[in-house]
Every structure is written in C-alpha cells, then in structure tokens.
Amino acid sequence: MSAELDVAARVVELIRELAGREAEAEVVVRNEAEALTRFANSAIHQNVADVTTGVRLRLHTGGRTAGGSTTVTGPDGLRALVERTLAAARVSPPDASWAGLTRPAALHVSAGHPGSGEHSGLSFGFDEATAHADPADRAARVRDFVDAAGGLETAGYCRTVAVAAAFANTAGQAVEGRTVEAAMDGIARSGSASAGFADGVARLAASRLSGIDGAVLGARAAAKARAAGQPAELPPGSYEVVLEPDAVKDLLENLATFGFNGKAWVQRQSFAEPGRAQFDPAVTIVDEPLGSRAEPAPGLPFDDEGTPRRSLVLVRDGVTRAVTHDRTSAAEAGAESTGHASPYSRSWGPQATHLRLEASDTAVSTADGPAAIAASARPLVARVARGLLITDFWYTRVLDPKSLVVTGLTRNGVWLIENGEIVSAVGNVRFTQSYPQALGPGRVHGIGGESVLLPESWGRARYAAPALHLAGWNVTGNASG
Amino acid sequence: MTHFDEAGAAVQAALDAGARYADARVMVRRTEAMSARDGAVEDVGFDESAGIGVRALVGSGWGFYAVPDLSEPAARAAGRRAAEIAAASASVSGPPVGLVPAGAVVASWASDCVIDPLGVSLADKGDLLVRATTAAKEAGADLAEANYSVWDTRKWFVSSEGHRIDQHIRECGAGVTASAFGDGEIQRRSWPSWRGQFGTRGWELVEEIDLVGNAPRMAEEARALLTAPLCPSGETTLVLGGEQLALQIHESVGHAIELDRILGWEAAFAGTSWLDLSRLGSLRYGSELMNITIDPTFPGALGSFGFDDEGTPATKRHAVRDGIWVGVLAGRDSASVAGLDYAGSVRSDGWSRLPMVRMTNVGLEPGPHTLDEIIAATDDGVFMDVNRSWSIDDRRLNFQFGCEIGYEIKNGKRGRMLRNPTYTGIGPKFWQSMDMLSSETIAWGTPNCGKGQPGQIGHTGHPAAPARFTGVRVGVRG
C-alpha cells in the first residue's frame, strides 16, 4: 500500500468514527512534486520547486454534501478536515443532485505501469529519473535551448512533475497510481525594439525528461523567429489556413472545455450532438488518459471520484460520439461516468485533458524543407493556393459557448502561402471563428501525418495534435490596429 | 500562534548554505466557496492550505522551494534546498541581480472586516444563493447560477534584512448569473458582474450587492437580449460602464505596466509590453483625463494589503498622470534592474508559489461627470457594460472585448437594447480618445488574474467609473 493510500484509508476510518455508517464519502490524496526552471533574456531567472501532499474529502450525509481539502496531513490535520467537512455538510442545504459513490472497480492498467492501458499498446512505465530530476538536469536543457538559438534572445521553461495519488471511498473503492511528466516550452526572438521583434516557438511534452532535447527545440524556435522578420499586414477576410500542432492544441483545448463538457451539454450550452456528423469525415478525436503511442505521457488511471479511466472516442470519422461525464453530469444525462471528475467538475463541468486528434497516414517528409515549417505541415502547405501558415494561437476567448465562436490572436509566426510556397511573413492577426464550423464537413482539406504531444501552458492537460489544413479561417483585424 | 520562528529558521538555513539574501513566508489560508444552480446548492467546499516558501539569492541566481510542513527542521531543509536551487540557476545566468534598498520592517496588518465571512452560517449563505437563483428562474431564466467565495489568509514574513511582518487578509464576494437559451445562441446577464463582485472586506460586501433583489432583472434582460437587434458594426462613440472599464484598465494598462513584462521576464508565456522604459515620464498613454493609480491602500478593494510579499509597505503612486506614463508595478529585483527606486507590487497566490510582480489596485481616478450627463452629451453612440469576453495581444496593444449588454444612444438618450456588443482597438489610441469621465467610482475586484509558471491566480482591484471614447470600432463579427 502506498503512503497516499494509507492516508486515504485513515481518513475513511475517521469518517466511520465521526460520521457513522450512513455517511458516504470519498477521499483523494495527491502527492505532487513539481520543479520548474524559467528562463528569459537567455538566462535563468526563476527556479522553483515544491512538494505538496493534499487531501481532498467529499462527504454526503443526511442528504447534504460538503467538500474540503487540506495540506495539513498529520493526525490532527486529518481529524480536523473530517470534523470541519462533517460540520459543514450537516448545515449545508439539501443536495438533490448527489449521484452516489463509485462502486469497487478495477483499474484498466497493469499495476505499476501507467500507460499500459488496454488500448495503449505500450508499457513504458514510470520514469524514476524524471521523478528525481534535479535543477542541473533542467538547467542543462535550458543551456542547450539557449545555445541552439544561435544568439537570438530566448525565454521559456523546462519542468518536471511527479504525482503519486490514491483514492478511497466508503463504498469500498480503493485505488492508487502515479505518473510523471516532463515538458519544455520556449521562444526565440529576432529583431530589435526599433525594428520590431519576431518570435518563434517550440514546445514538447514527454513521459520522461530524457525525451526532451533542448537543442532541437531551441533550433526550431530560432528557425521560426528568423523566418518571421519583416512581416506584412493582411486585410481582414476569410483565409485558407494550415495550422501547426501548437495552434491545433488550442482548438482541442476549447473543444474539451466547452464542447465535449458533459455539464455544458446537459445544460444545453454545448454544440455537441452525439450521433450527428458535426465534423469533417477526416476528424477523429479521442481522449487517452492512460497514454498511447501518440500520447505517451499518461495521467492517473482514475478520476477524483475513483472511476477508472479509459480511452473515450469523442468524434469518430466526423461523427460526434460522446461527451465527458463525472457522476453528477452522467446522472443528469442518464449515462455512466466517463471518468472525468475533477475537484472543479461539479461547478465547471467534466473536461477531457488528454485529447488526441488522430494524425493521418500521410508520410512525414524527411526531405529538406524550410526549417521554419514543421515537417508534417510541409505537404499541407504545398497544397495551398493562397492562404496562411499559422504557428500558434494566443489569448483565445469564447464569444458564444453554444456555437463556440472564439476570438483570439496568432503568435510566434504567421506566413502567407501562395501556390504552395511561403512568400512572406505576416504580422499577427486577430480572428473570430466558430471552432466546430472550422472543422465542419468539407472544411478539413488535410491532416498532418505526425501528432506532437504538447503541454498545457497553465495546467496539466496534454494534447496530441497534428497539423491541419482548413478551408477557411475568419481574420477580423491585425495586431497593430 | 505565530510562525516567525519557522520562517526565521528557513532564512538562516539558506544563508548558512551560501545565500546572500533570503526570505521566507509562512502562509495559512482557509477558503470557502459555494455555488448554486436553479434553486439548489450545487457545490460546497472548504480548503485549508499551510506551508512555507523560501526564496534564496546565490550570486545572481534565484531559487525557491516550498513544503507544506511547518516544523522547524522542515523549514531549515527548505531553506537549504532553496539555496541549492539558486546555485543551479547560476549555470545559465544573466546580468547581476540587485534589490532596491529596503529598511527592516517589523509590523502587523489586518484588513478591515465588519462581518467575518467565515462566521456567517452556511445555511444562511446557501439560502441566499438558493433564493437568488430561484428568483432568476422564476423571472424567466433558462439557467440560473450563483456563487460566493471567501479567502482568509494569514502570513508571516521574515527576511535576512530584518523584516518580520504578519498580516491577516480577509476577502470575499458573490454574484448571480441568468442565462436564456435561444435558437443556437445563449444570452447571459450577471449581477454585479459575470464573476461577481469581490473585495478585501467582510460579508457586508455580499449583503450590499443584493443578489436576490437584482436576480429577476438579470433574467428579464437575458431573455430580452435574445430578440434584441445585433450591435451595429462600424466606428462610433462608445460609452463604457464601470464594470467593463475595470477590465479594460486591467488588460490594457495593468498588465502593460508590469515591470517584469517590460523587462522580458514573461516573454514566453504571459508576453511582454509595448511600453519602453526609455519613455517613462514622457510617453502619452491617453488623454489628459487619464489618471491611473497603483494603490494597495484603497479601502476594501480586492488588491489591498499592508505589505507586499517582499515586505514593502503599501503605497499609492501614479502609473499615468494627466495622460503621461509615469510609473510601473515593480518588485525589488526588477526595479533594481530598471534603475528605479521603488517596489511594492510583488505577491504570490500561496506559500508554494514564487512571489512575482502583480497588480494591486490599478484604477482610474474619477472625472467630473455622471453617466447620465455623458449619455445626455452624446448624439450618436453605443453604451456597453459587463464583460462577456476578453482578449488582448501579447504586447497588450490590440484588444477585443465583448459585453453582456449594449444600448444605442441617440440624441442624448439611451435607446434600444443591443445584442452581442463588442468593441476593438489599440490601447494608447483608445485611451487618447477618452473625452468624458464620470465621478461614480466603484472598486471592482478581479479574483481570477492568471500569470506565471507554475500558474498563479492573482486578486486585483480596479477602481473605475463610466467613461466615453470616440471613434471606436464596434460590432466585430467573424
């Protein structure tokens, strides 16, 4: 039994002692060790690490529910957590939507081998070296990134995260698991304050720090930055586009948050209509929390309600198949939980955090080509008569959740394509675009042959994204006004 | 019970391990939040977080380490670890790091609070949210949601320069939202703003905003918006309500004047700034009506404190005076790099996060008019209020905002309601077009400002009043 499961079991015992047999409760214990090295102006300027064990309790008694958490995990702290949560539950308003507890159920993984789920075909295990990486390991990758940028100014981060967690509830479910991740994300900057800067980006998530090569990423970011100088300005209009994986990540993130979110769907705030062909037939989107060849950095094998996680097909060949549920939204929908409960899912809805847009079987060119263009995007660029190559999106916000109309800007490299060739760099543009409409039937002209595993900048989600060739994208202005 | 001893032990351990400067912050935070939907409580949660974060400076490298263990041995170990991490930073080091001078401060500070928000019964709080959402539902909302949040934070700060400061900060707030579903679209109205109103105050703030009394109007307006005409597209005179102007200040001024962004320290993630330090004191940011202050002493606003997380006392200063850019949000190290002689705007969102440059209360000083006078003086334009969407480029120049509600203005009168109002512009051009400003200031709270890696949530305040802008592009559609 792990230390985390031991703590969870002790909390369950305390619940029995203090709240009686009729109380229903679930406990999540997470030990997280996160270390992150940030660099800017080509020097390390922040270097942080923390180790936290958090205990989260949700307790339902007398038809009333309350939740609580603490980082104070000694005997007194755990007892205080139970007492406080029990007292809160007793005076809380009635909870008519309580969906009960997860019954005992086995995980869909082999013990000790996250990523060995039945669909992954992989057994890459838990990388101890990443879990115990030290500041020098991260600094070495930063140094490689900086050096590979060849004198351009650089900024970004390198991080490692190790999580060991356990879940137990009063219905008898008791599971544990651990996972580890490494990620690097950086920009290189060409130009000057007087002439204007041009940024290029490179980022990657991995299941082990050894899978991240700072020199490769730094060279890629620098190539983009060098090719992005002296940008032209474009008039507003609808443009055919090739989106590189970093930009596609933003589509997946917004689809997960607003479209495939089971609570939003129950509340009629989502565009999703399972069974309908809402996307181009080329589009297949799968959530892979246990990892796969295209997403070899799995999450925990269970969610915050103890539901075993497994892969979930959200879109198959253009047809919407499912939305993500926790127990609450599933009960409202008359469905089963899909294992997407989080501390926030009752309020914000259950969200997929390991989405993968299936790459095509197009061979990725190994021939020389412009270094600024991702190799898997080059065949897509070659088919564009007139359009844009977009590296990355920035500050995207939803204007209407139902139609999922999003506004935002481009960042880190945009180019004009004519007759299959890059003809000039373009300044950043603002767009206003319905994401499902952009991926709708007949709108996807091509998908790249390689998925890139990308870290979420803010949280811990990971997205496996290929390049995309889309028929149209609404540019509504440019960043210089 | 204080935690100065543990913080002091951590600082000493960092110094013993080679640090030339160190500070440590013990934080104990209790939070409480509840949400309700359609007349029933949906979620109730209480969190408690306690730990120590240690910052160490070795040569020109910073290190930070944090643990949730408040024993002295753990604190000493954290101090040593912070120094080790700092030493590793020096392997890819930049220019020398200094700190603007600060005298040792020994002090206590507590925010004003009339009604302890954690002392109000859960039943009463739940009843408030249930009644607010029921009222909205009965008035025609398809979906009614309400929430409140409470933060009770105690901090003990010790530095190697002799600081010894404890603070007790209580914050809370609440809001209600009514949504109406139409054919393929959703309209939403929120009171007092989409996320609610928040302040460094007690529960009296929540009582003042009268969620239940305002909920029916929100539902009626959301339903009316479904059939209201679309906001016209074009260039016009724009009158903004105070809530939307608060976010305009936050996004296009507050973030732009963060010194770490200006110096490039946030270039990869949060972005940089269009501002160039060589023009501090001479750059025209906006019209002469534009006076922006950085004021953590503003009573009750969400960005208020006694001392920032480097121990610098709260002080009011101008960021923009009579339209000229004159000040930045700074920390002791960023100010030193920039050659400035002040700091005071560094905070973190918890013991496990590195303090960084954050907005405090960044607000617009009031003008001479009322909103009614501004509308009466406008022949042709649009009024917009309550933010619905926000987006701005990484240099904080090009913005596009959507609001929940708009009204046309014709011949000095407020006319028809307008659906999906949006406006776009470029920061300095927009602020230079401000030609009328109201005196009706409210300090709006933003409890969800994201910045930094690992991500941190900042609490910021924005005193703002309605204002008028000319020649603004509105009605942007894809």
Automatic annotation (TrEMBL), chain A:
Source organism superkingdom: Bacteria
Task: Give a GO biological-process term.
Answer: proteolysis
Q: Where is the Metalloprotease TldD/E C-terminal domain?
A: 236-477
Per the record, which residues fall in region Disordered? 288-307, 324-348
Question: What molecular function terms (GO) are annotated for this protein?
Answer: metallopeptidase activity
Under the heading InterPro entries, the entry gives: Metalloprtase-TldD/E_C, Metalloprtase-TldD/E_N, TldD/PmbA_N, TldD/PmbA_sf
Q: What sequence ranges are listed for the domain Metalloprotease TldD/E N-terminal?
A: 25-89
Q: Which residues form a coiled coil?
A: none
Q: Which family does it belong to?
A: Belongs to the peptidase U62 family.
The molecule here is called Putative modulator of DNA gyrase
Organism this protein belongs to: Actinoplanes missouriensis (strain ATCC 14538 / DSM 43046 / CBS 188.64 / JCM 3121 / NBRC 102363 / NCIMB 12654 / NRRL B-3342 / UNCC 431)
TrEMBL record, chain B:
GO biological-process terms attached to the record: proteolysis
Residue span(s) of domain Metalloprotease TldD/E central: 116-222
Metalloprotease TldD/E C-terminal domain boundaries: 233-443
> What's any one GO cellular component for it?
cytosol
* Gene Ontology molecular function: metallopeptidase activity
InterPro entries, alphabetically?
A: Metalloprtase-TldD/E_C, Metalloprtase-TldD/E_cen_dom, Metalloprtase-TldD/E_N, Peptidase_U62_metallo, TldD/PmbA_N, TldD/PmbA_sf
Carries keyword Magnesium? Answer: no
Domain Metalloprotease TldD/E N-terminal, first and last residues per copy? 22-86
According to UniProt, the name of this protein is Putative modulator of DNA gyrase
Give the source species: Actinoplanes missouriensis (strain ATCC 14538 / DSM 43046 / CBS 188.64 / JCM 3121 / NBRC 102363 / NCIMB 12654 / NRRL B-3342 / UNCC 431)
